[in-house]
Design goal:
It is a single chain. 45% of the residues lie in helices and 40% in strands. It has 4 helices and 6 strands. The protein has a 6-stranded mixed β-sheet. Strand 3 and strand 4 form a beta hairpin. It is globular.
Amino acid sequence: MKAILVAALAFLFRFCLLADEAAPDTVRLKQLDEYWAEVSRAVGAGDFTAYEATCHPEGVLVSGSKNTTSPLADALKRWKKEFDATRSGGMKASVTFKFSRRLGDATTAHETGMFLYSATGADGKETREYIHFEGLLVKRDGRWKILMEYQKSKGTRAEFEAL
């Protein structure tokens, strides 16, 4: 009887430890889901200010297809014209994220997955880009910010849908 009680207590102790570890992870993932939803909203609305606010001021963009790195601030300058065109109605844009691996703690996160960026120009021509990516994020002053966006390589619709 004593052995059964000890085993039951040991099981409960381990279960409680796992539950304590899972709770912060659930909170972090909910916050990150909200972060990515805001990124998607900003792209769809052409809200450059909101999009820029999701980026760390010292963020880095890594391009696997171009084998380059650059300050994220430089990429934002290039992307602003598309945000402006979206906001004015000259084009439509959207981005959707899916994840295959999500690591982190209360103030850091490494997200791996794919995103689908779609854009429709004034001519009605639609482009869709499936991109394998990794994001390294930090939480500062209660807000998540992307510190590194690694656009690894082009992907396919099938790969995206499989996530």
